[in-house]
Amino acid sequence: MTYCFTLDLKPDPKLIAEYERWHTPENIKPEIVAGLRSIGIENMQIFRWNTRMCMVVTVPDDFNWDAQMAKLAQMPEQREWELLMDAYQQRLTDGEEKWLEMTPIFKLTDC
After folding, report:
1. Is residue 54 within 8 Å of residue 47, measured between CB atoms?
2. Tens digits of per-residue pLDDT, 2-18?
3. What is the predicted pLDDT for the residue at 96?
4. How far apart are CA 14 and CA 62, in angstroms?
5. Would 111 be classed as within a structural domain?
6. Is 62 among the domain residues?
7. What tens digit of pLDDT does each residue of 21-73 get?
8. Which of 15, 17, 40, 83 is 20 to 30 A from residue 89's alpha carbon, by CA?
């Protein structure tokens, strides 16, 4: 199963460069990667255009998103990471959610 989410980064080139640096293999905290894998995430990719982000997450078909994200949120390293990333991200709505799920509208393999 594949999920897709979006958010915006703060419109500051220095912050954007720092955000990207944090996401390089040599700078991302190993505990973050291990936490994502431990809850069943098979793959995650983040794309950027200007300040707009798109995150694509691949999980097993029986993955319970809400339950697994709640489990991830309880990991101390993950809470610290989210606080750190919050300095770079801005919400698309007035709500608490940062990453908003996008609705799939086309899948080539279905045609």
Report:
1. yes
2. 999 999 999 999 999 99
3. 79
4. 40
5. no
6. yes
7. 999 999 999 999 999 999 999 999 999 999 999 999 999 999 999 999 999 99
8. 40
Instruction: Provide the domain limits for residue 59.
Output: 2-103
Mean pLDDT of 67-93: 94
What CATH number should be reported for the domain holding residue 42?
A: 3.30.70.1090
Q: Is 108 inside any structural domain?
A: no
Distance (Å, whole) CA 2 – CA 83:
26
Q: Is residue 7 exposed (0-12), middle (13-18) or buried (19+ Cβ within 10 Å)?
A: buried
Q: Which two tokens stand for residue 110?
A: 């279905």
The token duo for 109 is: 């393999």
Q: How far is 86 from 10, CA to CA, in rounded Å?
A: 10
The token pair at 75 is: 């990991």
Domain assignment present for residue 109? The answer is: no
Residue 79's Cα: distance from chain center in Å?
Answer: 13
Length of the chain: 111
Residue 110's H or E segment, with its range, is none
Domain count, the chain: 1
Give me 90's structure tokens.
Answer: 């801005």
